Amino acid sequence: MASATTAIRRIATPPAAGADVQGWLTATWEPNWRSFQYFILYRLLLGGLCLLVLFFPGDWNQRLSLLPSPMLFALAGAYLAATLAGLGLAHFWRQHFNLQLSFQVGVDVVVISMLMYIAGGVGSGFGLLLLISLAAASLVGQGRLVLFYAALATLAALAVQALLIVGRDLDPGSIVQAGFISAGYFATAILARLLGQRIMINEDLARRRGIALDNQIRINQRVVERMQDGVLIVGRDGTIVRHNPMAARLLGLPAAAGNLGTQAPTLAAALGHWLAGGGDDSIILAGAGSAELGARFESTASSEGEVLVFLEDVGRVKEQAKQLKLAALGRLTASIAHEIRNPLSAIGHAAELLKEERRGEIFERLLRIIGDNTARLDRIVGDVLELGRQKQAQVETIELREFLGNFAVDLLGNENLPAATIALDAPAGLAICFDRSHLQQVLWNLVGNALRHSSRGPAAVRLTAQAAASGGWVELHVVDDGPGVPAELRDQVFEPFFTTHTQGTGLGLFIARELCVANGATLVLKAAAGGGHFIVSGRSDWCLLPVASGDPAAN
After folding, report:
1. For residue 298, which phi and psi values (nearest 5 degrees)?
2. How far apart are CA 450 and CA 167, in angstroms?
3. What pTM was computed for the model?
């Protein structure tokens, strides 16, 4: 008796599996309606069979005392009508779930009880049909309502049997049989409800885990898409199962990647060698645009045996390392430059004072050496300090024809050269988005460098402005008639403190490139048969405010 009481308490109160599960069990959600519809379909089939039996009676109808009659036809028809109405409500009007379920169970209790009365009581076997209805209702119903359904069926069975004992003189002992089947109603309801609770909790857990898994997949997909490293999932047959956008960019893969051997033969060969157990798990290869890439292989625990291939832009890593090194170097040299400038000024001032004394040609030559090297050191210190003082570019639209003309006049006047030394070619109306002072300094460094290596004759330096092939961009070409840059030095010309001139600081081209980056532009050295050829490419259609060149992310 104690165990039965515990079971009734458990069925009446949902288990403490969380407030959300309790709310689900006491309210309803989509699976309850679906199961409820299956329950109604079963009842619809049952009612249809009963009606069919009345149209085609047999020997068992007589044994159950269910001979066709207007009352039975009306009862079967009313049952089918109520069931069809319940199916329509459950499909189109999903509200008041407990009320709809209670109505359908009540219809079953009333109709089956009437059939029991007509057929002669619980001995007819119709009482067993209520067990199925109670079990189905208990799987989707609420705890207290489940006990109410069992109690309603019990009262109906006992009332029918009692009426038959009084009205038809049945054996009074048959009430015991009605009591046993009533106990079965409660046992079925309790056990079905406990099973329904467990199913609902497991289904809720599976639903939540499915949602969490879907969210995790979405997060992982977004992380992989935003990674700055390329990721490939490759099958053992070389098929590219999946890849992120960065991998497509690094390897130049099409939308339908296909086979790795077709798209990246070197990588496919290294992967096959690694799978055979004879290769390293990382290699260096050339990617799209001859970019230097690093590839690393990792096996997975998947059933298909796919391999993860991680691609890294080695050039980008080197550039980041270079920027970090330059930033540290810039801070160090700036601090040293401040300390050098004061004693350097004292040396220069002392040299000027010594010039006032006339002590011979050797003395004059030594003073000149001191003065020249003092001036060179001062230029180096000024350039280093200028690197530390670079600020956010104030970009504006600059009309190039007028700007380049004024620039050429200033530069040639400073160098005491004739106007024909620089040949200008800039169409009217062509403009570039650039900070005016930055563009002045960039051209001063480029054109000054070109003059230093040129013949200084007519048109020794050509300064040309033209629209780029890609729309919205403009190019400034600085070309000289000098010997050009040797092939072995081309990769070093933009490095700080690299110079081939005895009086140079080695910072001019480096500063020019950094200023271009700060303005959202580029500076490159073009391969040419003769003479140096530098190209500044910048926006011409609209102006941005790019990050300062001191930020490593800008490069």
Report:
1. -140, 135
2. 125
3. 0.46
